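Help wanted!
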Amino acid sequence: MVVDTSRPVARAADASRVRGRRDRGGKNPGRLRRSLSTHWYAWAMVAPVVAVIGVIVGYPLVRGVYLSTTNADEANVERHIGVNHIPATYESVGLDNYTAILSDGVFWDRLGWTVVWTVSCVALSFTLGLGLATLLNRKLAGRSLYRMALILPWAVPAFVSVFTWRLLFNEKKGLLNQLLAGGGIDAVPWLNDPTWAKLSVITVNVWLGVPFMLVAMLGGLQSIPGELYEAAEMDGASPWQRFRHITLPGLRTVSSTVILISGIWTFNMFPVIFLLTRGGPGDATEILVTYAYRLSFVVSPRDFSGSAAWGVLILLLLSFFAVIYRRALRKQGEVW
Amino acid sequence: MSTDASAETSTETVTKTTAETTDEAQQATPVRKFRPRGERGPLASVGLHVTLLIAAAVAVLPPLWLLVTSFKPQSEAFSTALVKDFTVANYDHVLNDTHFLSWLANSLLVVGLTTVIGVFISATTGYAVSRFKFPGMRPLMWLLLITQMFPVAVLIVPLYNLLASLGLLNQPVGLVITYLTIAVPFCAWMMKGYFDTVPVEIDEAGRVDGLNPFGTFWRLIVPLAKPGLAVTGFYSFITGWAEVAYASAFMTGEENLTLAGGLQTFVNQYTSDWGSLTAAAVIVAVPAAVIFGFAQRHLVSGLTAGATKS
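Answered by r_m:
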């Protein structure tokens, strides 16, 4: 349980509102009891989420961290072969997994590509989403039609889209290469050449990510009061100045949230890479998450401890990123 | 409009189309006398529509091509021509000769449960976080944020073991619980933002009329928050419908797979049955698109309520 039910608490600021018409505590209430009677509504409402997260994320996380300090792999974990039960024989190896990973070039290679992948995907889809949202945020014939069309990639399940792109990217017979051949251009090895494969996965992910950005940005744009633009226009601000000094600041809260969220999503974007290239060719498009998955489910023998260590490192990186990001925002006056 | 003015218009609109991403066209500068606010010259209109048309084409083409391909005979899956020999053989094959229907049933069960439970518990959590100040609130917010960044990789092996020891492997319930942990943190976050936009006075009015906090939440706030609920429901639905990693790791055996796992069996190292894949993919995409159609009206308002206030 994450909620600190046992921690003595000072009376919360709006306790009277929460307490409502309830009895104001017993004769000689302990602080715990008082805070329990004050906050039990709130706690009851968050309890299911905390329970689910605690069991399904908390326990595996602790287990995962533990596994990452052992040498567990397919050959020495507890398993059943027929009726025989083979107990686990792996043992603790301390931080060996981590030192091995960090001193090996593979991790840094994958990390470099993951950063490139995350930054370019988020930057491209944010820019495109913002651009399209500005175009759509005005009186326009067929506006809702355009909006429907532009949001479509989001409505189609991601794995379906990814299969479709594989169909389009097919080197010998795919639509894209046939169109290029029609224009006299040689076939492009979309998914079979390391560089092209990287471009392809980024393209597909941007294609998938733009609708989310577009919708969020449209909402953000609509929340900017029109009077600001009128006033700026009166003062002779150019379109670019209006965009730069009204639109962008007005979008800051929305953008900071969606950039944080989509940054995290992209960093962990498993399906696109796994289904499009399986991390290939070689391991050219393998990001940290897919590589960790490969360690525990694809390679033989399955390397559970290595995979767990990769996972813990990924988590540390992301938490670090989130803390820095939040701190930066707070400096600019955002609080939660 | 005088010839003078239209000449000015065209030069001006040329500069405008080059700076497409600014919201220039709402307000024209030099010829303001002739053109009311919010109108744009013909060239700007053309530029706007061309840009949007290209973007829309890029967005629509892949799904459209999927649809077209699904009606082609297996042997012509890769021909560039539009449908020459229209056939529903792919659909027939998928529905009658594969496990597609049981995959569909599995997916519907898992996703339905995830959506219903996910929306409910993220709404209560969002409400609690939005309205009450209680000890553990900040840690909870952090927990919700951090849970979203949990990489599949760190959880998947221990979770696999956990589900195995609970006997939930290959059971829809196991997947439902897993998906809740993916969908709920984001949904609760979004619902909090949405509830923040509902005036507190409404709660107070309910309280005065003798409702307890649960009654206030259930009878007053939930009906007001329907758009937000639609968005969270949509998000949970899409999450479950499209999840690949957990589904392929936890569900084994042809008839236990969900759609995301099952479709992979059509095209892998050994076989590439693109005809069946496209037909199945179309059947999968349709319910998602329908749900999307219902939710999209509320999508913008719900999402940004969550985003702007978080």
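OP: Thanks! One thing I noticed: The longest helix of chain B spans residues 274-309.
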